[in-house]
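Q: what sequence does this backbone want?
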């Protein structure tokens, strides 16, 4: 089961990518993240890991599985025998960019998990995407 949220942000793609790649700063941008701690150093890359605490959820370690520098990345975690995959894609559009966030749940029981928690996941992804938009707009407005 997969779902995406797409939003156009009135900010350059490289600025939104900088926000996206700096995962430890996400709690300042979106209420969907309580704490994000990188478990390695250096730029985000395939194999990078972060321990994430989200409201109402246990901490989880997310591992980057694909990265297209300056454009997007995918990472995943395992929970309750399921694999949860998150994707982040930034594409230039006009003078701004399109930010697409995706969430996918794989494995036995994914359908039931999605039926029970899908509305919550969709709301969290929408909130996160609007948080990125608002953070990018705040940065643009800073002299």
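A:
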């Amino acid at each position: 089961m997969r779902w995406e949220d797409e939003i156009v942000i009135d900010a350059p793609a490289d600025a939104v990518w900088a926000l996206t790649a700096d995962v430890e700063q996400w709690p300042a941008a979106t209420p969907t993240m309580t704490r994000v701690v990188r478990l390695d150093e250096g730029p985000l890359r395939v194999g990078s890991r972060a321990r994430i605490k989200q409201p109402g959820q246990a901490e989880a370690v997310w591992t980057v599985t694909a990265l297209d520098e300056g454009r997007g990345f995918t990472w995943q975690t395992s929970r309750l025998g399921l694999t949860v995959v998150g994707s982040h894609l930034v594409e230039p559009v006009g003078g701004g960019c399109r930010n697409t966030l995706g969430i996918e749940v794989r494995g036995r029981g994914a359908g039931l998990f999605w039926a029970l928690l899908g509305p919550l996941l969709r709301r969290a992804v929408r909130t996160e995407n609007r948080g990125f938009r608002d953070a990018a707009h705040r940065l643009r407005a800073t002299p």
